[in-house]
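User: Hi! I'm working on a homework problem where we have to compare a predicted structure to a textbook description. Could you give me the structure for the chain below?
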Amino acid sequence: MEYHTHSEGETEAVGEALARTLEPGAVIAFTGDLGAGKTAFTRGLARGLGLTGRVTSPTFTIVNEYEGGRLPLFHFDMYRLESSDELFDIGWEDYLRRGGVCAVEWSEKVSGALTGALRVDIRRGEGDSERVIIIQGSRQGDGSSLPLGQQEPSPCLPGKEA
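Assistant: Happy to help. Predicted C-alpha cells:
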C-alpha cells in the first residue's frame, strides 16, 4: 500500500493504524533518508499499541524498549551497526522471543536478519512536509499477510495500491 501524508501527525496516524493490525513477533523494517519520518511513524506504532511514554530515536542506545501496552515495542536504530552479525551480538533473537513488535530503522544495514519483515519505506514527497510511505509484506510475526482492511489509516490520507 502507498500513503501520502502532509504532516508529522498524519505520518504518525499511518503508524498507529498499522499497529492495530500487528501480532506478537512482528518485525517492521524501515528504510528512508535521515529525517524522513521513521521515528514519527514509530511514535504512531507506539500509540496504536497502547503505549503512552515518550518515543525517541535510539540512535545512541541502539534500542529503546517500551512496555505497558497491548504488545511491547522494541525500537532499534541500526545506523551505527555494520552487519547482521552485530545485531545478533546485541541479543536480536532474545527480542524476537519476547513476543513484541520490533521496529528497525536503517534496516538495510542488517537486512540478512530481517527475513519476512514488514517493509516500510518513507521518502520525502514533492512538498517539504509531504511523505510517501510504502508498506509491503507481512503484518504478523509468522510471515503470513494480514491486510489493513477496516484499519485504513485515515480517510484524509489518500492511499492506493503500490
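For your comparison, note the following. Strands lie at 2-5, 27-31, 63-66, 73-77, 101-105, 118-124, 131-136, 159-160. The longest strand covers residues 118-124. Good luck with the assignment!
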